[in-house]
Write a structure and sequence with these properties.
Chain lengths: 197, 436
Amino acid sequence: MDLDKDNANPTILNPSDLPSRRRESNTGKRDDGGSGLFDNLIPRYNYLSDPFDDPVSASDSNDDVVENIDEQEIYDLISTIADPEHPLSLGSLAVVNLPDIHILPPISPQSSVSTVVVEITPTITHCSLATVIGLGVRVRLEQALPPRFRIDVRIKKGTHSTDEAVNKQLGDKERVAAALENGTLMGVLRKMLSTCE
Amino acid sequence: MSTPTPMITRLSTLSPPSNSRTWQTAPHPTQPIVATACSDRSVRIYSLTSFTLLHAITGGHKRSVRSCSWKPHTQGQNVLATGSFDSSAGIWRKDDGDRLEHEVSREIGDEESEDAEEYQFSCILDGHESEIKSLTWSPSGQYLATCSRDKSVWIWEELEDDNFETVAVLQEHDGDVKCVAWHPEEDLLVSSSYDDTVRFYREDQDDWVQVAVVEGHGMTVWWVEFEGGKADKHDFRAQREGLQDTQLQHIEALERSGPRLATCSDDCTVRIWRRKPREGANTQNSGMPSIIRSAAIDEDWYQEAILPRAHDRAIYSVSWSRTTGLLVSAGSDGKIVVYKERWRSQESNGTTNGAAMEGVEGADGAAATEETETSPTEWVVVAEIFSAHDVFEINHVTWAKRADKGKRWDGEEVVISTGDEGEVRVWTLDEAVSRL
């Protein structure tokens, strides 16, 4: 459904290599899979699904109202965002990658707030559009995820010349809010997110 | 570890709430009303007596209203300043009318009687190049300070009604200016910023200049607020009998410093800053007037304390009760935390620590204040509540005088929190924590 069929360029990931729910649940394929990318993903899934499968934590009173969301779902929400420059998805450009998505559970048992951390990898170290891409990811997740998630979007360390400055902007709620009231910027974002349906 | 008894309880949610993000709520200096800045470009005025909406100010701003501030000491009318993401500030007025009658009619359900009285747009203050983040009147009402993403702080003076003059444009910061606050007794302005610093300004020979800068927060400083004027009559300083000499000296030194400053930041800390009392304050009288700006106007502010860490995400707001000296903070993690300052127990042999402290002593002992070694006081968490706005972030928190029928004692205060979901909530504190 979310496969991107436009990629003819070899530097672009093949859609069938992109992580997807279908493959994750298909245990048969896991066994004969030789891809390093895929191997790396398996322990992460197991680790993350553990708390949900654990009967002890399942008895928690919160569980019936809190629907479980995992990294793959986050990935599915943002990998289809269109790059602002190319007619390609952030997933196929490897700007967003499943291993760089983390869901942190509530810090205290009294809190119901989880955190989604997404590290994005700009295609080149001087990519001036890194902020816009990061903003697109943040906006997409804010719109799609339940409000109990806090969303931290960062540039992956060492992949961008001004990653600290970009991270600060992306983490600034007030700046993000003001950006969303800016018609020009919203036009760009809307275009990026139009491929997400 | 775990909070003992719930020391903080929700009293009400102001009704009806906004259906989009609310940013900040300003209690009126004397009347039982609050103004809430809303992202739907409006300001909502609620009653703290009935907890219902009295007025909605709409049709003025083209973007989010981020901040609002009541002008103090107005006669016969209410004056509200609003700061917006549309880069402008607005001034709104409403004649007082018969406020008492108005409140009564509201309570007996006669909703129609006062609709004629609405807030009227009065004038617009243009000048900032981008979003206004915060604005606030000086305690005398003479000045209005505004700050913006354009990195500047502007000071406006109202010469006569609706005639505002720009008296200063301060461009010391290297990033968005997030918040401005006035000293309660002096014409001393402070601003905090995206550049992680806090800066102080004063008028010197007709020019407003920076007189101090403090660094310490490793990240954006979201809010600054001065200690209130009368809190020292009621907080740990109130009971002086039986204090040791070092404690009495500490109180005297604090008096010379004057009101302290509280700041909160993206770095998840709340910090207290204090002015170093000027040594030989009268030497400047004998000195010759200098062409160069006298060093005498510069101030030395230093970090007095870091409060026990109670938040795990950005802290957007901190507020200092002018009545009790309690501090309250809130932010992205959705918690409201109340702190109290007290004498360090090992030195004071249990002078003023009442029963209020007993319950939390064990829980928060580990999170003791990390202030400078020698300070004879420490801050402890006396109340906290998780998920105060359900799963939503809290953008602002402040104190107001309680005004509903359930008021338990004269001077009782409530905490007012403003959330991302559009709700403004009113909280009461356990009597043991907040009663003077």
